[in-house]
Specification:
Annexin V, domain 1, mainly alpha, 11 helices, Sec7_dom_sf, Arf Nucleotide-binding Site Opener, domain 2
């Protein structure tokens, strides 16, 4: 709460400084643009919707899903939780931004866990199951688009992605005493490939590659 108050105070102070400046417009334009961008980022971190609206109103962002997605993907000065909240909103524009955001990721030739790590590093998953569901559906579609010969359909990729996230949570949550084994993970994912089984090698490489297996950055799922 104190951090939010401090950030709000900084935003107000910067806006007052901009309004009270005595320099000519052409001299202050670059400085004002930088200040407005900074204000927009801080507004976004406090309220993602208002932050994007502010940046669009001040011509710092084009009102297109592609431009907003690029802004979120770069993430300069942005809170990753706020990015996740914005991407997870169920509004037509937000959903188009989500699709454009996912398309900025290149998962070509990455094993699934590597692609998941890259994707989940760019934002934080929100707390609502429906929002997570939409995000993971977009991820699975993008992964299969770039790696068309791994899974028979996107549903298989989607289910296995969730299984990897839950496995990762169990492996790195200290409150979970009985860690899943390779055989248990394989058994839990039988029949997910259109009723058939995925190759054992694919499951092992997807979930237990590159030991020691590094934790995915998913604060929401890492709490007991």
């Amino acid at each position: 709460l104190q951090q939010l108050k401090d950030e709000l105070g900084e935003v107000v102070a910067e806006m007052e400084a901009m309004e009270g400046g005595g320099l000519a417009a052409d001299e202050t334009k670059p400085s004002n643009k930088a200040k407005q961008t900074s204000i927009g980022r801080k507004k976004f971190n406090m309220d993602p919707k208002k932050g994007i609206e502010y940046l669009i109103e001040h011509n710092l962002l084009a009102p297109t899903p592609e431009d907003v997605a690029q802004f979120l993907y770069k993430g300069e000065g942005l809170n990753k939780t706020a990015i996740g909240d914005y991407l997870g909103e169920r509004h037509d524009f937000n959903e188009r931004v989500l699709r454009a955001f996912v398309e900025l990721h290149d998962f070509t030739d990455l094993i699934l866990v590597q692609a998941l790590r890259q994707f989940l590093w760019s934002f934080r998953l929100p707390g609502e199951a429906q929002k997570i569901d939409r995000m993971m559906e977009c991820f699975a579609q993008r992964y299969c688009q770039l790696n068309p010969n791994i899974f028979t359909n996107t549903d298989t990729c989607y289910v296995l992605s969730f299984a990897i996230i839950m496995l990762n949570t169990s492996l790195h949550n200290p409150s979970v005493k009985d860690k899943p084994s390779v055989e248990q993970f394989i058994s839990m994912n039988r029949g997910i490939n259109n009723g058939g089984d995925l190759p054992r090698e694919l499951l092992v490489v997807s979930a237990f590659s590159c030991p020691p297996f590094l934790p995915l950055t998913i604060p929401l799922l890492c709490h007991s």
